[in-house]
Amino acid sequence: MELTIEHLSKRYGRDLAVRDLSLRIAPGLLGLVGPNGAGKTSLMRMIATLLESTEGTIRWNGQDIRTHGQSLRQVLGYLPQDFGIYPEFTGRQFLRYLAAMKGLPSELLNRRVDEVLEIVNLGQEADRKLPTYSGGMKQRIGIAQALLNDPELLIVDEPTAGLDPAERVRFRTLLASQTRDRIIILSTHIISDVEAVANRLVILREGRVLSDTTPEALLARTAGSVWSVTVDQATAMQLQERSQVSTMVNQMNGISLRLVSSTRPHEAAVVVDPTLEEAYLLATSRQDIRV
Amino acid sequence: MNITALASTAQQTRTIERPRLLARVMAWELRRFLASRLFWFQALGLFGFLLLMTWALHAPDQMSAGVSVNGGGGGEPLTGFIAGTSAGGLLHTLPTVLVVLVLLLPFITADGVTRDLNRRTHELLMTTALPTWVYVWGRYLAGLVMSLGLALLLLLSTLGMGWLLHFTVADYPAPEISTVLLLWVGIVLSATVLVSGFGFALSTLLPRLSTLVKTVIMVAWLVGGLVVPLGLGGTAPATWYVNWDPTSGVTALGLLPAYSMSLNPSITTEAQFQQFILSIENKMPPLAGWFAPHLLLGGASLLLVLLASLAFKRSHKTLG
After folding, report:
1. In this complex, which of A76, A145, A150 lies closest to B6 when CB atoms are compared?
2. What separation, in Å, do the N-terminal and C-terminal C-alpha atoms of chain B show?
3. Is some CB atom of chain A closer than 8 A to the CB atom of B18?
């Protein structure tokens, strides 16, 4: 089970959304992060056979998906960033409908729908009409439909956008529980979403792979580059202009800052352990990192 | 959220059940239609409106004739009417009633595929292993079945109201089922298939213009079915137009001369007069010329759907 991307490019008019991108992806959860416009959605939609590439190839188990798209779709689960529902249907009907579209054998269909409803913990609400679902429930129905065919390749695009913190944690845990024997590509710009679950992290910027690493390696590389300091208002403003500030908290004795910088930003600054978000900030502020 | 390991149905759930996929797509699309209350309200409203129209047009052509008594003058003028559900009456009324049906059909069929684009359910479906042709034809056939159901309501309203009028209005003839069926097939069924196929194919090929497609169909039908026949006045339409007019407005005008009456001088009573009208109005209309072209037009729309299914692309060049 392998997804291979070779020299992939995507051009919209004069703009290159994805530039000569190459990746080999094996089973596990790959976190795809990057700022808005980095090319994440374009890349995921090309893998999901929804978008034509301008150059390069995507191979699933050695087969080019342009000519063998059907064999990929047979094992693909896809949760788009923003998907629609059929308001006439209940959650259960919606899943049965999509299971039928995925060609699940009739004798398995109902059983499988019950299974995925249990996985996403929507069994109790399954017979409610979809328009009555909350945002979190709708996302869970989305992941349930993506799991219907027990996919070998699961692509989820910004699944936690719009969810409250508790729902986000639940969603992450759910994804983490599904990593065995499949490739999961999780695209997000919320770094904490991938921190807990991804065993590989790909940072995209301007359509290129800026960093292909693991969360641990990225953190290790960032050690010594995150600083903490408490200063007055004016100094805080000066530091903010010179360095990347990851947190800024008003306290009784001044303003407490965490700064991402390869050099000591202030004489009173002390080195602290980086978070993955700070590691990401440092990586995206550099030009040529590749592990 | 309950984190449960997947049951070991992996290989089975990845097995695509191909042979019945088209039937399943159709069945689920129909189920989706039927789950919508709006659809039932529309169908019920249409049936009620068609019944009302059939009742309102039950005597579309009033006739009167002055007769002589014993060869002299002074006889009472005789009056009679063409029954709206007779063959002659249907040629008067059916193109008008058909306009009502056709105004509804694009909303049933044209959005079979574009609805998914507008609702953003498109990506969920296009990333399944559902073959493209199955998706397009399944959506089309489901829409066609719904359209034929509405066309059937038109037939039922004609026959139902015809029988009701027969039992409640003096001298109103019972509808001749074979004649009504024949006109329904030639005028209504062919138009239903044509509009369904045309609207679906164009909207699928030009999804961003689906509202325009619907508008063009409705306006074109109003012009062809109502405005052009009125504009012709008493002039005889060209034969090719009579035969190939998809709205049947001009077709009906071309067929009506076959129902013209020259009064037999032996008729002296209103009962005889109505009997005379009855013998003319329920004649089977001549089929030569127009019937096959109308069916061909319906069939041609299937070719358009075929074209749309071949041209349909599940992947795009832009994010859309």
Report:
1. A150
2. 34
3. yes
Model pLDDT for residues B74-118, shown as the tens digit of each residue: 566 777 788 889 888 899 899 999 999 999 999 999 999 999 998
Judged on CB neighbours under 10 Å (0-12, 13-18, 19+), A127 is exposed
**Which of B2, B13, B34, B130 is the mutation pick for testing A, counting most A CBs within 10 A?**
B13
Contact B319 A149 (CB under 8 A): no
The ipTM (two decimal places) reads 0.88
Is A188 in contact with A31 (CB distance < 8 Å)?
yes
A151-176 residues labelled b (16+ CB within 10 A) or e (exposed): bbbbbbbbbbeebeeebbbbbbebbb
- Using the beta-carbon criterion (under 8 Å), do B314 and A82 form an inter-chain contact? no
List every span in chain A annotated with CATH 3.40.50.300: 3-214
CATH class, A3-214 region: alpha beta
Q: Across the interface, do A50 and B126 touch by the CB < 8 Å criterion?
A: yes
> What are the residue boundaries of the structural domains of chain B, listed by start?
28-64+81-311
* A48 inside 8 A of chain B by CB: yes
pTM exceeds 0.90? no
